[in-house]
Structure prediction request, 476 residues.
Amino acid sequence: MEAPFFPFFKERNDRSLQFIESEEKIKQQSALEYIKAIHKQVKDRNPGESEFLQATWEVFESLRPVFEQHPEYIEESILERISEPERFINFRVTWEDDNGKVHVNRGYRVQFNSTLGPFKGGLRFHPSLTGSVVKFLGFEQIFKNALTGLPIGGGKGGSDFDPKGRSDREIMRFCQSFMTELSRHIGPDIDVPAGDIGVGKREIGYLFGQYKRIRNASEAGVFTGKNPDNGGSLIRKEATGYGTVYFVEEMLRDQGRSFAGSKVIVSGSGNVSIYAMEKAVEFGATVVACSDSEGYIYDPNGIDVETVKQLKEVGRKRIYEYLEFHPTARYGKDKSEIWKIPCDIALPCATQNEIDRESAQALVENNVKAVGEGANMPCNEEAVRMLTNNKVLFAPAKAANAGGVAVSAMEMSQNSMRYSWTSEEVDKKLQQVMKTIYKNCIETAAQYGSPGNLIIGANIAGFKKVADAMVSHGLN
Prediction:
């Protein structure tokens, strides 16, 4: 009796299936069109800001499955709101050198998104700093901070001032002038800056001292990265480098690999690089090369991290002077050539877009197994595509280098409690944060149809945390 009706039901079920598939395609197309339309709007509003546009598109293109599942984000214009800073501050910094000559620099602070907490992000003093770079860094900071699970929003700032070759007194006068303007825009519950390239404990000390003078108050929580004797957290200097290695080790472990016995290249020789090298060596790796802005050193027997510390942290010297202590090492003047050295793991820890397609291809040809971004967006779009298409394990910056801001948030907590944790306590908390970030990224990537893709996992996990809070907060 049932057989004559079977073709009818089969045909109806086929039509239902086709309708569902068609509806799914419409949703996908609609989400993609929405993303492209909003990014065109971002382009039109921010012409010529290549770094910012690169950073926004890298996040936007990951979000299509999110908008397919959550049309409420489109209705609430979350993408439009999250890509527009709450506030962008641009100011003049006038200061006097030791010879009495007056100089003028530009100062910046972008307060990008405070949905999860006070704006949080470093200050960078470097001649390459522009409004576009500040906005790209602040935009990235929104999602990086969200991934830590700590109550902090996204911000960034700095100046095109170059501290290299300047005396301590010149740097102090610049910092005082810079802070005279910035002080009116920050506070422990408003915006909490930290250090970045060109801004270490010395600069933070001068900035904090001027802030206290202006505000007539000891608000230790207004800055992080302070000297531990002045309210700073232990392990803060090491945190970004350590955190990068902790994250990459989790990624490697999932594939049955480890730092142990691996050859590693680390670009840069600042805090991130030095302490990534230190932790990689502690995990059993051999770091064979590192660099600075003028060139790179290669030592097949392994870089002596203590020598690099003495050169960079104590002497503020150039990396080629490493050869005076280790004459068997080799120096190269073209720092981009560092990526042609065979290695198992590459940790770009210098600056944005330092690895292009050619450098990524060289890494692939030399059978690199993993790349972990210690700097902010050190691989450009073509490089990321080259690495991921060739099955290289890839740890994106907003997840891998979140250790620094995580410990900054811990410093804020310690300041609020008028209490200090031991190095061991902070390091243990840092390890747990990085493990949690990795787990969150892996699970989110799988949930949204891209298992193992940490770029998509990090972008979506960070975005969703902020987006859900923005929806619950209403228009802001």
Summary: The mean pLDDT is 93. Residues 260 and 284 are 4 Å apart (CA to CA). Residues 6-45 form the longest helix (40 residues).
